[in-house]
Predict the 3D structure of the following.
Amino acid sequence: MASNSNCGALTTRSMTNIWLIGQLQSELPVNVLPTTDKVMDMWNKARIPTTYHTHVVEKVNEAQRAREKEFEEKEHMLFDIAHQHAMQLIRIQEDIEFLEDQRGSRRMQMSGIDKDLTKKEERTEQRKCKKEERKEREQERMTESTSLHLSSSDDSDSEQQDTEDNYEIEIPVYYKKQISEDRDRNPLLVHWDGKIMNDDPHSRTDRLAVVVTGCNVEKILGIVKIASSTGQAQANATFQLLKLWDVSEDIIGMCFDTTAANTGTSSGACVLLEKLLHRNLLHFACRHHVHELIIGEVFTVLFGPSRGPNIGMFERFRAYWPNINQSNHKPLDDDRMNYSLLQMMRSDIDYKELVELCLLVLGYPMQTDGKYHFRVPGAYHMARWMAKVIYCLKMYLFRYEFKLTATETKSLTEFCLFATHIYVPAWMLCPIPSDAPVNDLQLLSRIEQYSKINKNVASAGTKKLKNHLWYLGTEMVWLSLFSNKVANAEKQLIVEAMTAVDSDWSVRGVKYPATELEHVKSKPLHDLVSGTSRAALLSLGMDAAILRETELEHVKSKPLHDLVSVANVVKSLKVVNDTAERTVALMTNFNQSITKNETELQKLIQVVEDNRTRIPDSSKRTLASAQAAAAMF
């Protein structure tokens, strides 16, 4: 039988520990020299001569007094527990000065509670509470209203999504009729473009502008907030707006900037939108965006990579502009201007300020009553190179008015040569869809020929273009059937090549492979045809077999309904994304300027678009026509 032992209460080291001192020792250790009690005995044991006892006591007293003095001094020092970045976090200057004083001489004192600041903070908190209450009331109002609800959904990925993007947009019947009833349900292209904009004074958000275009149609569907700029978010928002406006079944293609978020093979917005619509769509890469990549690469080769959002040479020029004598502009002064190659490349182009500057650089006289008026250099953006081309042309024209280094002058000369002879003419032809394949072939050839003028510039341009030959891919080559630049015999061969294969989307060559670039220059267009070419044409409602039975030279003029209809559709295709970019600019102008209510903001965009359509300018004739049209209703 076990017996109970009479043990006392258990003690632990923590119970006997003395704060700031530690554990007590019953006696000094014998293997080290002591520093307190029994000092004399221990030193005698070590056989070391010692001083008198009174002197030992005095040393101990001095050490203790020093520790007491140090402790008393620390009592009057600040026990600093401020944040390591407190100086940056504090906004009130008085508070900063007080903290600095407390860390130093400690002369300042708090007089009491700052009543004014306290009241201000209370008002700020009240405003925040009222703002939250307004948001809650608005949410309840929209929930109870008859708004059309958009909920993002993807059948294949719905289980993987943690949240859903929800948009609520009320579409007045008047605006919905503009697109759903007042047209013959012709094929449409969907365009989108995004930008980060202010959401309130303290935050920013991604917005996506979505537009559809077609025969006599250009309509803004919305400029909505999205959680991020990923391909998934853009595809979901675009799909929801198409469903809301009841045009999803009319979409036959997409026009987009060639960014990774759009063109990714697995998570790009284009691929995901096709999955949401459950069908293949034509990929119309923005031709202006592709050309901007070319001129951007040329600029980098000549001037070096940019180290920030601003370009120093442009900033200097803009600041110096008021001092420039605008009558003292000089054209290109380079012996290579007389080369027959550049003379053949020179063409008559027409595009407002850009073209007028090109003509001045090339030495063509301006047909004006007085002296030519130059516009003040404006803002520019790293992603949009047209403004930069204009800057370079102006700087070169005024190179004797504006101080440039020898290197800058040389680089500007090379840039202006390339821009005026290669880039701007190609840029002007970008919007013509039927000429896109042959124009890309010609541009590729012209850039390679330009290597005789400047090998480095030509190499940079070719490098970018070869990765963006979208319109030489099998999916877009059929556009050549409606081009006046392609011979009828070649068109006939294209049709025969299409009728020789079955319609098949499985060969999805959205752009010509860069690895086969050397071969494409020698290939005729009909060698680029595949089953995808026939499927792409079929998506417009035209089978290649019908074209085979028709004389191709009469495609645009013969009164055959199907041919005329398809020709009109091709003519209406917008292969540049300018419409979406203009919509983004529209939102930038009106964002938070009139209303901060999201539903009202979407209505405002529709009103502004309708007004600009009816009254595109402020001339008396336009205003009179608009007033007469309004009087009829």
User: Anything to note?
Assistant: The chain has four domains: 29-63, 151-286+577-631, 288-468, 469-570. The longest strand covers residues 188-200.
